[in-house]
Design a protein that fits this description.
Blueprint (H helix, E strand, L loop, with lengths): L2 H11 E2 L1 H10 L4 E5 L10 E3 L3 E2 L17 E5 L7 H10 L4 E5 L2 H7 L4 E3 L13
Parallel strand pairs: 1-6, 2-4, 2-5, 5-6
Antiparallel strand pairs: 3-7
Length: 130
């Protein structure tokens, strides 16, 4: 693979937080954003506003919640986390159109984009199901 092919593939498979924010504001019904992070709810209580929370470990049992007629955007913790890439591959193999949000929730927060904190709304459990 040459550099041009690499960058074309990268652009096809990912979307930046800025691009996602702009595009989802212009066409809100086109996208379905999924927070796929695993782990205890208390450490992942901060989510991107309007994201659907479907942890990777629950995904196979919750496919019916994911529309096939929308572009699916998945995110996890940050650039070092590959959970979103694993979920993207899983969904692509099942016929979904998917992109990974570059940088995950960490990049989103760094840019001060809208988030939702559900820590006051949930009961904290020590059992993460990992």
């Amino acid at each position: 693979m040459n550099a041009l092919d690499y960058f074309n593939a990268r652009l096809e498979a990912t979307i930046s937080p800025m691009d996602y924010l702009k595009l989802s504001q212009m066409e809100p019904d086109k996208y379905f954003l999924i927070d796929v992070r695993n782990g205890p709810i208390n450490v992942r209580s901060l989510t991107i506003k309007d994201a659907h929370v479907i942890p990777q470990l629950e995904l196979p049992n919750r496919l019916n919640e994911i529309p096939k007629d929308k572009e699916i955007i998945v995110y996890c913790w940050d650039v070092w986390c590959n959970t979103a890439a694993k979920v993207a591959k899983f969904l692509l193999e099942r016929g979904y159109k998917v992109k990974e949000l570059t940088g995950g929730i960490a990049a989103w927060k760094e840019m001060n984009f809208p988030v939702l904190d559900s820590s006051q709304d949930v009961e904290v459990s020590d059992n993460c199901g990992c």
